[in-house]
Structure formats: structure tokens, C-alpha cells
Design a protein that fits this description.
mainly alpha
Length: 179
């Protein structure tokens, strides 16, 4: 059963997904480019997937399955080496992806209606390394993510979701004016 915090996150993901779906609908009605409509639909689908993962405790299930595999393969005691490599791969991948997005962003001139779905999807992509760090559950990263009265995990999660939600709401405001 999902905790009350997980249910709260699921509600926020659901609201963000609905806002992105509404933005996709407005983009279709206002005859925006297909890429803009698809961008909003993709973002909505991503937040719906996050909602489902929260409701079924997907992170915990994956983490438990990986631990069971490590025990069965008799590598659990040496997991720190595997975890470190895994975390480094995700950090390098995240940095390369961010550099690629930054480079593409700087090469093109974006209008707000083009930039908003792109920014919303970039925020959604930020969940990949966050989920990877939470699933791998390396002691050092767990201390960073889960300690203190205001946990870094919550700040990152809410910030990423908030960026996507704000972009969708702003697009709805701009899209409604274009119609």
C-alpha cells in the first residue's frame, strides 16, 4: 500500500498529467505544430507513468527485486562497487543529456509556445537519474536524499514536477490567447 506521501505525489503527478493533456488539446485546437502537440502528450504520458509507479510502489518493488537478485547471485556483499558504477553511469548520462539539451536549445530560437513543452519534458527527464539513485539506494546518496526535515528527494521531485506543471499552465494561458 502506498504511503500518504506517495499518494500526495501521485495526486500532483495526476494534476500535472491533466494540465499537459489540456495543453495538448489546446495545441490541437489552435493548430499548433505536431511537435508541440506530441511534446505535451508525451509529457502527460510520462507523468501518468510516474503516477502508476507511485500507486503500485514500483520503486520499492524494483529495489527489492534487485536486492533478491544480488542475494541469489551471491554478490550482495560486494554491491557497493556495482552501485557506484551504476550511479556513475547515470550521472555521466544525465550530464551528457543536459549538455545535449543545452546545445540544441542555444542553436535554435524558440518562441514560448515551442519552448514550454520542451522545458516540461526536460524536467520530466530529470526523474530518470533521480529514480535511478533512489532505486540503487547507495548509502551516501540515501543520506543526501532522505535526511533532514526537508528532504532533498522531495525538493527535487516537487521542483521537477512544478516546472512541468508551470509550463503547461503557462501554455494554456498563451494557447487560449492564440485561439
Amino acid at each position: 500500500m502506498a504511503s500518504s506521501l506517495s499518494l500526495g505525489a501521485a495526486v500532483i503527478y495526476g494534476a500535472t498529467a491533466l494540465a499537459c493533456l489540456a495543453a495538448a488539446h489546446i495545441a490541437r485546437k489552435a493548430s499548433y505544430q505536431g511537435a508541440i502537440r506530441r511534446g505535451w502528450a508525451l509529457c502527460a504520458g510520462g507523468y501518468l507513468a510516474l503516477l502508476v509507479v507511485r500507486l503500485i510502489d514500483g520503486e520499492d518493488r524494483i529495489r527489492d527485486a534487485l536486492r533478491a537478485w544480488a542475494y541469489a547471485a551471491d554478490i550482495y556483499q560486494g554491491r557497493e562497487g556495482l552501485q557506484t558504477v551504476f550511479v556513475l553511469l547515470f550521472v555521466v548520462t544525465a550530464v551528457l543529456a543536459l549538455a545535449m539539451v543545452w546545445r540544441l536549445w542555444r542553436r535554435k530560437r524558440h518562441s514560448p509556445d515551442q519552448a514550454l513543452p520542451c522545458l516540461a519534458n526536460c524536467a520530466l527527464l530529470g526523474f530518470a537519474p533521480l529514480y535511478a539513485l533512489r532505486i540503487v539506494s547507495l548509502h551516501v546518496t540515501d543520506m543526501l536524499l532522505y535526511t533532514g526535515p526537508i528532504r532533498l528527494n522531495w525538493v527535487i521531485d516537487l521542483s521537477l514536477t512544478g516546472i512541468s506543471l508551470a509550463c503547461a499552465l503557462l501554455f494554456l494561458r498563451l494557447g487560449g490567447a492564440r485561439r
